[in-house]
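Ticket #4471: structure output looks truncated?

Reporter: J.K.
Steps to reproduce: submitted the chain below (239 residues) through the standard prediction queue, then opened the result file.
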Amino acid sequence: MNKLLNFFLCITLSLGFASLVSAQTEQKIKAELQGKLGSNTKIKSVTVSPIAGIYEVQVGNDVFYTDVNSKYLLQGEIIEVATGKNITEQRQNDLNRIKWADLPSANAIKIVHGNGSRQLAIFADPNCGYCKRLEKSLQQLDNVTIYTYLIPILSADSVQKSKQIWCASDPSKTYVDWMINGTPITGKNDCNTVAIDKNLSLAKTLGITGTPTIFFVDGSRFPGAAQLTDIEKKFSSLK
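Returned output as attached by the reporter:
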């Protein structure tokens, strides 16, 4: 009995030591690589990858790879040959995932099609051409609730338009009319527009650097003007 206990104790200690060594190696690589890349590139973490001797490097929400000596920085995808699984893409999706409950719907323009049973959120700039293209596609979606968070990041005019839309008597209609038909926005911007400031801060926190950016209820994101077929495919996967 004592021999068995000693065996499990040795195994536990060995695993603990291995974990400690691994953590120290990761910290060493991170420090060395950070020094080489400079302060303008902030490394969030360095962890082991599925390939021996190769480590995953997280910079913002992007994934790179390096060797144990931090001599090389690799940009590309790791694909598991046996299954065809894109490990890098899966990891990237996990890093970009958010908590749907963290999105403050009170700061969004709410548009409902049909019974509104499906949900998605969009961060958009009113002067964004891709956002306008996406909005036209979304008109074909049925049974969906769309939460649009205005983030005026393109110009001073974007700020003006965002505030006018938010302050309109019917923000959702004003937004759609502008984005779809180019109907001039004539309202004032004299209401409380703190929601737009909060949206900008939230976008920064979520690492949103361009519009449109779409989020689904599982927290996954689609950057750019996604195709309607891809949106429908994603909705189907959520059932």
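Triage note (M.O.): checked the attachment and the full token line is present. The chain has a mean pLDDT of 88.
Status: closed, working as intended.
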